[in-house]
Amino acid sequence: MDDLQRAYDLRHASDRARLEGRTVQALADATEAVAIYANLPDRGLDLANALRLKALALDDLERSGEAVLDWTEARRLYADLGIAEGVTECDGRLSR
């Protein structure tokens, strides 16, 4: 399996795990997906989405101080890509 497919699978596994209440696993999967996407060219949207999932898991684990870094980076990427909904969500999370 190539890195792009692995990151994609991890990102979706993270989302599923979080929705099922398996937050620690969601964080692990999202963290690994972020690491892979960060080393792939032209994957800004995928990286932003993985950062979002990582931040959501951190928030769910009451580690919001750590989540701020991921929300901030995701916001920057969404803004660079012109994705207003992503920017709005990040702004909302950062204002808490």
Structure, described:
By secondary structure, the protein is mostly helical. It is built from five helices and no strands. The protein starts with a helix and ends with a helix. Helix 1 packs antiparallel against helix 2.
Which stretches are low in confidence, meaning pLDDT under 50 for 5 or more residues running? none
Helix/strand-derived category reads mainly alpha
Number of strands: 0
What is the CA–CA distance across the termini? 39 Å
Number of helices: 5
* Beta-strand share of residues: under 5%
**Percent of residues in helical segments?**
over 70%
What is the approximate shape? Answer: globular
Largest sheet: none
Q: What's the SSE pattern?
A: HHHHH
| Cα radius of gyration in angstroms | 12 Å
Residue-averaged pLDDT: 96
Features:
96 residues; mainly alpha; 5 helices; 0% strand
Q: What's the short story on this structure?
A:
This protein has 96 residues and is mainly α. Helices cover 82% and strands 0% of the residues.
Helices and strands in order:
Blueprint: H1 3-19, H2 23-38, H3 44-60, H4 64-81, H5 84-94
Helix pairs in contact: 1-2, 1-3, 2-3, 3-4, 4-5
